[in-house]
Amino acid sequence: MVFTFAAFCYMLALLLTAALIFFAIWHIIAFDELKTDYKNPMDQCNTLNPLVLPEYLIHAFFCVMFLCAAEWLTLGLNMPLLAYHIWRYMSRPMMSGPGLYDPTTIMNADILAYCQKEGWCKLAFYLLAFFYYLYGMIYVLVSS
Amino acid sequence: MITGHQECAVPKEVYHKGPQVKEGMQYGEYVNNQASSAPTPLSSTSDDEEEEEEDEEAGIDSSSTTSSASPVPNSYDALEGGSYPDMLSSAASSPAPEPTPDPDPGPAPASTPVAPQPSKMAKPFGYGYPILQPGYQNATAPLNSGVQPSSTVYSGFQQYPQQYPGMNQLSSSLGGLSLQSSPQPESLRPINLTQERNILPVTPVLAPVPNLNLELKKLNCSPDSFRCTLTNIPQTQALLNKAKLPLGLLLHPFRDLTQLPVITSNTIVRCRSCRTYINPFVSFIDQRRWKCNLCYRVNDVPEEFMYNPLTRSYGEPHKRPEVQNSTVEFIASSDYMLRPPQPAVYLFVLDVSHNAVEAGYLTVLSQSLLENLDKLPGDSRTRIGFMTFDSTIHFYNLQEGLSQPQMLIVSDVDDVFLPTPDSLLVNLYESKELIKDLLNALPNMFTNTRETHSALGPALQAAFKLMSPTGGRVSVFQTQLPSLGAGLLQSREDPNQRSSTKVVQHLGPATDFYKKLALDCSGQQTAVDLFLLSSQYSDLASLACMSKYSAGCIYYYPSFHCAHNPSQAEKLQKDLKRYLTRKIGFEAVMRIRCTKGLSMHTFHGNFFVRSTDLLSLANINPDAGFAVQLSIEESLTDTSLVCFQTALLYTSSKGERRIRVHTLCLPVVSSLADVYAGVDVQAAICLLANMAVDRSVSSSLSDARDALVNAVVDSLSAYGSTISNLQHSALIAPSSLKLFPLYVLALLKQKAFRTGTSTRLDDRVYAMCQIKSQPLVHLMKMIHPNLYRIDRLTDEGAVHVNDRVVPQPPLQKLSAEKLTREGAFLMDCGSAFYIWIGKGCDNNFIEDVLGCPNFASIPQKMTYLPELDTLSSERARSFITWLRDGRPLSPILHVVKDESPAKTEFFQHLIEDRTEAAFSYYEFLLHVQQQICK
């Protein structure tokens, strides 16, 4: 059992995915609050927008790590989400600061529903990924 | 340091930050001190206060942030009876000069334009829904059947003959007799669109009347204020999806009303759980309890409510004005305030760059302001201020006691500050002389300016700083692309692409500067109204954001020039008169509630959406319209009626906090045929237009156009599948939807959505802004203009308005086939009137109405009708005046000679005809039919 670079990548990804799970939960709660009128959309967008890029960068970061570690399958599993993130950020509304959410359109029922669904889907993905990384790490450690 | 190059009657002080560090620094400090010691009503706690206001509107169920500090009375038991001093002071407290129709859908007054003409679109009367939820228990009228035994009741009831369009002449009593034998309601009569040549009725299309029992019908909200696209609400979302029709509301909440019950009472009775205001559609379980019609909670009737101030009797809660009128206004107590009601505050921000001075709008504006200074809505606290800007920003110190206005110039546009925050917004009455001096001097102050730059962004930032302590209205006049400081814009329009049939780009904003500014303004209860007077591309798509999200309004005068384009100058002058003198509400919020099961989906209009059903409106004006898309979340099977209520909480210009409440009640149906029977085609088109604007901005114009065509195709094919026995080759529509394809074609040819015809980007964007913010009545004319033949006006069927006889010529369809060379035609496009004079037009008419001896001598540019003392001139003028009344935008009149180059303007509105780029009506029908058969 040797502690390889790949194993290190999986461990790192494990930790970072835990962080991403928190991001996703935060996202879901925030949009739920919006829907139930607890928060002003302006405040909510101001708190959510700074978190978008860190989340995307963390994800992109361990994708690059997997690339370096030549973990092709794991990388392949993460590619759709990476592509989605890039697409999502490219098609964001016109705004000067970082972020995705525009307080003037966020209360639109379609967008609100989309964001909520996005949150749940991401949470599911990150949870599955978390266990996959755990399995991947053990597998790498055992097989090497 | 004094700048010498500008000649000006006003002494100036120039403040430079930067090089003159010392002076600037001192100044900055001074400003800071001022700011901290100023007695501003809004301090850093403003955000929390915002929250609370929301809660007050929202009620107990909303947020948990309200602590004991919240003044909302949680218990109505504690409240006692009181007197009603101000009851029904309607005429005095809400004067409205326009002869707008009566809000009460009872007998229409003589001024109602449409009273004598029944509509083919209207819903039939006795067709029906057997059991309706009782309006209130004590009512004695029969609730189950729409037909009452006594025929005298119906004498004034105009819906009666509407079932039989072919029998309009039939007396109403006869119509009543044959009612029961009708096998199918008129609105469901199938019509073969491709064979019906004259689809457009000759009388204006009326809103269909919801199929309710007579009692509720009488009480229901006027369709001018509140309309729903489907007057029969489908029971489930599945049924709605099957019908393929949009469900939504069209609102005109702050309309000028001639009669409005105003209620002053200590307790405003509201449902304790959903905070609905008591309305005509609640049911009284007994004397002491009422059941909310939106959430079905049973509430207590407060003691005070038992006394009826109208009849001065006790124990008749159902006779109170709140329960007798679906549009009422409450004078709100201090519970509905977070700060003392703000005074009316008006700030004018004026572009004085070379371009603006050249266009000469300052003369028109100063003149209008001088004339209307005393008519500005407000009380003794009214404040006013002026700012001008080119590459620098100029403030005007108008403090009482000065001998003449003092101009203060701030040249640092990167970091704007207010030189003397206290004396820039001054009391209108105390400083009236100074204001008049300034307005008299203003048009000539900048005549020799060479400054071509425009620092609009910094000027707006300064205006925001100036307004934020109080809130109010900022009117911005801009004549070119902003070129300096924050918010500068680049030209994005490619003139060669104007008539492209492919992609239309740049419909969205280029920067979010104006949006952010608008949101900040909205937070401080400030609305920004934009007047764009520009001859060149000015990126309205970006600039409009400043008004869109701050609940302002947008006016656009393309190629404005005082001397070269006098008709535009006249239009500006008239628009300004209306703008300056119309009613205004400050620091407003509007909440829309609906029966449990329905929910708001998307809002359209100028506002900021603060929560799922709350719109934040810094200002509200009588010309603002709104649209709301609805969705059905839960099945409505256990109810037969649904209600919608809008509550508009605002501060009047007199400093009173008021709540205007409209309630609309509609029946629920379970069959697809009934849904089609209740379609309000005009409302549906307006909602679709709003949705299409959103689609063009978020996706693309061609997507939006496809969606519009699909709306027709889907709804007609869905209807076609419900009727089995008919020929499949024909294009069949129910009578209620017969105008749907025509209106959609009109939309496709409207400036906002047309392709292939040269359209300037700003014109297109402006048309889109109008679609979003105009109320239904005005929007319909923009979409489908009305065409009348006016060379043979008669008094037949004329209506009398204020002792004037107004002829009512029949509507003509918008096609060149209706234009005869021998006639003269008037087209009413909402924002413009065209009078087309045929070549062979009767010389008598030309002489009597236009004051020219013959056709050849009519001038090319004629924008008014001379006041001639002839019968036909009088008729024509009174008809045009009648059409003009109550318009937010004063229409310009163009007299268009056949053969003159201006006639293309006129002919492009003939939407039933074929153009190089678009279908004719018949071709469009064939196209739709093809799509259905696919």
TrEMBL record, chain A:
Its main location: membrane. It is a multi-pass membrane protein. It comes from Galeopterus variegatus. It comes from the Eukaryota. The chain crosses the membrane at residues 7-29, 56-87, 123-142. This is Protein cornichon homolog 1. The keyword Cytoplasm does not apply. It is found in: Membrane. Belongs to the cornichon family. SMART domains: Cornichon (SM01398). Keywords: Membrane, Transmembrane, Transmembrane helix.
Automatic annotation (TrEMBL), chain B:
Keywords: Cytoplasmic vesicle, Protein transport, Transport. Residues 96-110 have a biased composition (Pro residues). The keyword Protein transport applies. Residues 680-780 form the Sec23/Sec24 helical domain. Residues 46-59 have a biased composition (Acidic residues). Its main location: cytoplasm. It comes from Galeopterus variegatus. It holds the Pfam family Sec23_BS. It is found in: Cytoplasm, Cytosol; Cytoplasmic vesicle, COPII-coated vesicle membrane; Endoplasmic reticulum membrane. The keyword Transferase does not apply. Residues 268-304 form the Zinc finger Sec23/Sec24-type domain. It comes from the Eukaryota. Residues 341-580 form the Sec23/Sec24 trunk domain. It is a peripheral membrane protein. SUPFAM superfamilies: beta-sandwich domain of Sec23/24, C-terminal, gelsolin-like domain of Sec23/24, Helical domain of Sec23/24, vWA-like, Zn-finger domain of Sec23/24. Residues 585-669 form the Sec23/Sec24 beta-sandwich domain. Residues 1-121 are annotated as: Disordered. Residues 35-45 have a biased composition (Low complexity). Belongs to the SEC23/SEC24 family. SEC24 subfamily. This is Protein transport protein Sec24B isoform X5.
